[in-house]
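User: Here's a chain of 135 residues. Predict its fold as tokens.
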Amino acid sequence: MLELIHAKHSVHRIGLHIVWCTKYRHHVLKAGIDIVVKQTIGEACSAYGWKCHALEVMSDHVHLFVQIKHTDSAADVAKTLKSLTALAVFHRFPKLKGSKFWGSGLWSDGTYYGSVGSVSQDTVRRYIDEQKAKT
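Assistant: Prediction complete.
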């Protein structure tokens, strides 16, 4: 469950479902590479103060459910994780870069972002609509 986080000047609960794929949809995230990706994401989440609620590495893409701080953008989170995991994978498996990715990056440019919340759109809309009546 997403935690309500109290910061110095804010209260927030921001959850994201982020999905990204390997370049050319190559099925390379297996045979130990998946473990490196998972470890790197776990370490990065700890270092940046993000909470990883769920993570699955498929052979050609990654699913992540993460809670972030209000000062972080979804795009920056994905960019950071894609960069760090690519560096870790190519460091541990240098032949992969030459055989599958011809010197390019591990990840495709595209990323899916979905917000995850504890209330529905209708609940938020109704709450906002009812605010005038409360004053």
